[in-house]
Specification:
The chain contains 1 helix and 8 strands; from the N terminus they run αββββββββ. With 157 residues, it is of the alpha+beta class. It folds into 2 domains: 42 residues; 100 residues, Immunoglobulin-like. The strands form 2 sheets. It has a 5-stranded mixed sheet with strand order 2-8-7-4-5, with no helix packed on it. The chain is elongated, with a radius of gyration of 36 Å.
C-alpha cells in the first residue's frame, strides 16, 4: 500500500510539473506577443477606402449631326476607364432598329471618349456599301450595364 501511495504521489507530482511547465511556456508566449512592435500591420488602423464614383456617360450632342459617311461620335464619361457603343439602323426586315455595328474598349482619357465610325465599327453590308449613308441611326453609349445613353445620329446628304 505504501508503494501504491508513493507511486500515486510521483504521478501527481509529475502532472503538476508538466502542467506548470506548460503554463510557464504559455505565459512566455503571451509576454512575447505583448512586446510585438506597434508597427505590425495588425496594430495599424484600417485604411479608409475612397468611395467609388458612380459611373456616368454622355454623348456630345454636337457630334450627332454629320455629312460624313464615317462620322466621329464623342462624349464624356466618369467612373470608368473604357466605354462601348452600339450603332443601330432602321431595320428593313422588321419594325424597329437593327444592330449594325459595335465598338468595345473605347478609352476614356481625362473624362472624354471619341470614336470614328469606320468600317471596323460598322462593317460593309449590302445596305452599307460605302460607310453610313444619309439617314438616322441610334447610338447607344455604354459605361456599364446600368449607365448608358442613347443619341440619334443624323447623317445629312
Amino acid at each position: 500500500m505504501t508503494k501504491l501511495l508513493t507511486t500515486a504521489a510521483i504521478v501527481v507530482l509529475m502532472l503538476v510539473l508538466i502542467l506548470g511547465i506548460r503554463s510557464a511556456k504559455q505565459q512566455s508566449t503571451m509576454a512575447q506577443l505583448e512586446r510585438r512592435p506597434t508597427n505590425d500591420r495588425l496594430d495599424q488602423p484600417p485604411i479608409a477606402q475612397q468611395p467609388r464614383a458612380e459611373p456616368s456617360i454622355a454623348i456630345d450632342q454636337a457630334t450627332l449631326l454629320s455629312t460624313s459617311s464615317e462620322p466621329t461620335v464623342s462624349g464624356t464619361a466618369s467612373g470608368v476607364n473604357l466605354v462601348s457603343i452600339i450603332v443601330r439602323a432602321p431595320s428593313a426586315k422588321f419594325s424597329g432598329w437593327a444592330e449594325i455595328g459595335t465598338a468595345d474598349n473605347i478609352p476614356v482619357t481625362n473624362g472624354h471618349w471619341s470614336i470614328r465610325l469606320t468600317e471596323s465599327v460598322v462593317p460593309t453590308t449590302d445596305d452599307l456599301l460605302n460607310g453610313l449613308t444619309p439617314g438616322t441611326y441610334l447610338i447607344d453609349a455604354i459605361a456599364d450595364v446600368d449607365h448608358q445613353e442613347t443619341g440619334m445620329l443624323t447623317i445629312a446628304p
